[in-house]
């Protein structure tokens, strides 16, 4: 299925889809700089320089699988829980100070809900980190929230998207997925979902792969909020 910008107008979405699922980091919030800083700080404490592309390696894996990969990659002595706890502590502090929803996101989510489209947050992030945003994000914008630690496999597999649709009572083939990583869109597509690729500030985002996996790519949400 291919889409146009007009197809993403809330009234048009409501005519074709039952639900819309949204990733957080890089999709509805520009947070690449925060996680890059978390990675740099974490590795610097161990005397390890942060290599280019590390964020892309971790993005699809989620916290626990990403922590296990990092431990193996750099030969660390820590446990997965210890790595995740340190990441969460660093991330929560920086999120409160620096992360906000992208312009137009709140308005678009409200318009979708007003049109009768159910919405879900589907993120590999930790609920404690999202909660650290406090008043900067209205959690009522989402009818459901699904976190990576609540499903068996990471975003290289469709588990989190399938669970998001299940919690919303939506059929996968009637669900839109907004993502900034191609591997996530490819996973969602395997169970019949339609993907919207969202361009981000991450210089390592593979935009060609994103476009290939998506029914449409968008640069931001501002025009959609006004549609």
TrEMBL record:
It comes from the Bacteria. The lineage of its organism: Bacteria, Bacillati, Actinomycetota, Coriobacteriia, Coriobacteriales. NCBIfam families: HAD-SF-IA-v3. This is HAD family phosphatase. Pfam families: Hydrolase. It comes from Kribbibacterium absianum.
